[in-house]
Amino acid sequence: MPGRRLSATGWVQLAQALIARELVVSFGLPERQAAELLGIAPSAVSQYLSGKRLGASTGASRAPERERAIARTAAQRIAAPTGRAAESVEVVFDAARELAQASGTPPATGLDGQSLQDAPDPHRDREVRRYLRRRIALEQAAVGECMRLAQRSRDELTRAVFRQIASDSLRHAEIVASIQTYLERGLRRSFASGVRREDIARLIEREREAEAGLDDSFGPEFGGMIHVLWESMEADERKHEALLNAMLLHGLPPEEKPRPRPTATRKH
């Protein structure tokens, strides 16, 4: 496991794969029941077990003993839930954090919520600012080009694609401008406020439940620009889950550990 480098979403997927394997192989649960406990589609469990979803190098079948121990503990928690709606999601994210820490993930990944440096060297800071200005200009240029192509298009579906790209580029420029504002204030890290970890975990679970209840067999039937737009919707759904996963692992302030109560001293 040492040296393994994964994104925030990658750690979550690895945790799901390892826990799914424990539920099916060690606990003897059917794949469908394991999928229900994890809040994912049964096909995802099958792919996790075969190693196809993560690739052979990170598949669940080749997990080192330390990873299996973390997954086994998580599987035990999921198999005996407390009744809270977001329990399984929270267990998976706890396991993802443990896996990242056990792998010796470098602090630069930000998985520990504390390790990103707030004061980079001046040269690097200038490079970042220069990049952000350039990125805004490129995104704004993309907006203009896509709107021009949308006007030239003769069918509504093609116009919809170019308008979507233009909208995305405009939003990207706004995001970069917001980041630039934070950097100018000397802030290189910001945590979400007003939302709880449970809120995000519950939203992830609802998104998965909605996806599991839909028939995903229609996409291959579409062709041409209909296929392009259908794929854009699917890509957005994957992006939403990745964003929520990253928010849980990166975007929330570190959880405060309860302080021990002071021991009362008797008066003599």
Give a brief outline of the structure:
The protein is mainly alpha-helical and 268 residues long. It has helices spanning 8-26, 31-38, 42-50, 65-79, 87-102, 122-152, 156-184, 197-212, 224-251. The chain has 2 domains: 8-109, no CATH class; 122-251, no CATH class.
Would you tell me the overall average pLDDT? 79
Number of strand elements: 0
User: Could you tell me how far the N terminus lies from the C terminus, measured between alpha carbons in angstroms?
Assistant: 57 Å
Roughly how much helix do the residues carry, as a percent range?
55-70%
Continuous helix count: 9
Number of domains: 2
Main sheet attributes: strand count, strand direction, barrel closure? none
Strand fraction band?
under 5%
Label the structural class.
mainly alpha
Topology as a string of helices (H) and strands (E): HHHHHHHHH
